[in-house]
Amino acid sequence: MARIFMKGCEAIAEAATRAGCRFFAGYPITPQNEIPEYFSRRMPEVNGVFVQGESEVASVNMLYGAIQTGTRSMSSSSSTGISLYSEGVSYCNAARLPIVYVNVQRGGPGVGAIQPAQQDYLQATKASGSGGFEMIVLSPSSVQEAVDMTYEAFDLAEKYSNPVLILTDGVMGTMMEPVELPPMKSDEEIAKLKEARRAVSAVGHSPEEQVRILPGGVGASFEAANIDAYNMYKDWAENEVRVEEFMVDDAEIILAAYGISARIARVAVKNLRAEGIKAGMIRPIAVHPFPYKSFENLDFNRVKGILDIEMSIPPQMKWDVEHAVHGRCPIAECLKSGGELMTSEKVMNAARELAKEVL
């Protein structure tokens, strides 16, 4: 398959189009603007619909309506815009609607900076909306992974009838890399996918037919829906964990990082090895469900310390790392935030200091 040079945001939009996405609604915010811009050109070419909503709130609720027709639908925003999505995403979860959306993170808190950051981790993995629902959250460390994850996200959303989030950042969104694009789904394939959701769509039914808009009414029916979702989340913890373990087998120092920070940490691991420090890396590819077992199963007779690497101050993923490690070794921090980029030099210096303390 031919390789093409693409910017991250544009590659995400093209991958979604090829996966059969035929509705996009969104609102401008840096650094994700290239996603709606690309869709504005691309959707008319494939008989899809692009809408620039009057706000993020309007856009996410348009997504709720579009997906009820069985149409593969998507939206995107950045950080503060994603906060405004919370109510609509909560509704989509309540109705078990398979939306896909993207957060190209920017610095915070609040409106913050337009430069890249990783300060939405807890929002993405623990509190995307009301009601305590969960989602599969994928986080790429390359433009190719962003393409592959976006393409698959629609299948995952429909498999579980649940929203799926692509959590990336301004580095991944704006950098350009060569990618291999997946095949374009045919009109026949798209029609078949839409028909498969007909039974749970809000169109194509007679007035006598019952259509599921929400999972229940009041009282016990909502509890039953929550129990069903809880069982699904437990299944994810066994079957949807995605993790990379890089040079971990003999490692004495473990670097924990995701997304762009993991890409930087990989370079640091190789350089530290060249210096004689046995470093390895655990990278959550899906930050939810989190790969707890990868940390729990470490040999702590050999592993003497973990370095949590994030473009977030205070750290956020560290909460999950601590939960997995249970105090069995020290966890140090290597942090940047507010649009300040992580560097391999900073990671290496932090790893050297940790090595001095624990080895």
Automatic annotation (TrEMBL):
Domain Pyruvate:ferredoxin oxidoreductase core: 251-347
Keyword vocabulary terms for this entry: Oxidoreductase
Occurrences of domain Pyruvate flavodoxin/ferredoxin oxidoreductase pyrimidine binding (ranges): 14-211
InterPro entries in alphabetical order: 2-oxoacid_oxidoreductase, PFOR_II, Pyrv_Fd/Flavodoxin_OxRdtase_N
Listed name of the protein: 3-methyl-2-oxobutanoate dehydrogenase subunit VorB
Gene: vorB
